[in-house]
Backbone:
């Protein structure tokens, strides 16, 4: 079933993007990466301490959806790596994201939502309970938490738990296909073998967090939201959700523009940077 799920996600993304009537401005993504975490992985309880008590565990989300959590289950997580062409367009920009990047943020994320729904329905057809945390009634975005703007389920943290990547100086997730991606997840009572995390430290794929070098993302941020001390979420969010859509949203014809300047023209853009090795 594990191989089938990986294949289904990959084929779904490929065929949706091949349908130019549906996604005329694509393709947005290369072949997805897929990982698996046990829903009772202690990391999910740890996230209540690391992110905040508001962050939900898979068991809490299942209890709300199904009346009681299953005895065991799996968090299925995927990465949709942004294509080289879209990334290259954003590399040329210094103030606002490229049109292609913004189209990917809006329409590529709509496709990501379709992946969530498709996987839930596929698992249901096979007789398993399944839910997409992003569509749970418990999912909320909170403007003001001890860690700044945050939601009750972090797709990036689910992807880390599922062995798909590690965190970065600019608060993103660096995967085998780089930092420029969209990610999603579904929780199910289908028990699948977890993807090993290979003893990865939480920042091992980021050159600065691993060996104190790089910092290229700092110079890419037009509003100084990244420094060697970390990522200023409030400053970043004000730019990404305020300034940028006001400046280019209408011209690009999209409600969500993203920014992603710190995810392009950087060593981690399309893979795990080697560093000193
Ligand atoms: S650009 Fe360098 S410091 Fe910034 S996230 Fe990527 S690897 Fe880390
Ligand atoms: S997304 Fe844009 S505003 Fe936010 S940290 Fe990266 S470059 Fe700066």
Residues:
């Amino acid at each position: 079933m594990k191989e089938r799920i990986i294949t289904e996600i990959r084929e779904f993304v490929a065929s949706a993007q091949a349908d130019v009537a549906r996604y005329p401005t694509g393709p947005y993504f290369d072949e997805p990466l897929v990982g698996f975490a046990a829903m009772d992985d202690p990391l999910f309880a740890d996230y209540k301490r690391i992110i905040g008590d508001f962050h939900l565990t898979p068991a809490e989300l299942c209890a709300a959806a199904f009346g009681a959590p299953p005895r065991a289950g799996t968090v299925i997580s995927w990465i949709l790596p942004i294509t080289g062409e879209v990334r290259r367009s954003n590399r040329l920009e210094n103030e606002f994201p490229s049109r292609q990047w913004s189209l990917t943020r809006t329409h590529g994320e709509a496709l990501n939502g379709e992946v969530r729904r498709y996987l839930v329905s596929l698992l249901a057809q096979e007789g398993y309970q399944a839910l997409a945390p992003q569509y749970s009634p418990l999912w909320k975005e909170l403007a003001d938490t001890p860690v700044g703007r945050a939601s009750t389920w972090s797709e990036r943290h689910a992807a880390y738990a599922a062995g798909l990547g590690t965190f970065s100086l600019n608060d993103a997730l660096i995967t085998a296909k780089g930092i420029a991606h969209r990610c999603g997840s579904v929780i199910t009572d289908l028990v699948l073998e977890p993807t090993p995390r290979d003893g990865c430290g939480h920042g091992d794929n980021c050159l600065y967090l691993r060996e104190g070098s790089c910092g290229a993302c700092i110079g890419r941020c037009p509003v100084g939201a990244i420094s060697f001390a970390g990522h200023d979420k409030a400053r970043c969010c004000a730019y990404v959700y305020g300034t940028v859509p006001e400046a280019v949203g209408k011209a690009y014809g999209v409600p969500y523009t993203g920014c992603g300047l710190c995810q392009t023209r950087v060593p981690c853009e399309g893979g795990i940077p080697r560093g000193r090795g």
Summary: The pocket of iron/sulfur cluster (ligand 1) is lined by residues 168-170, 206-208, 214-217, 266-268, 273 (CB under 6 Å). The chain has a mean pLDDT of 96.
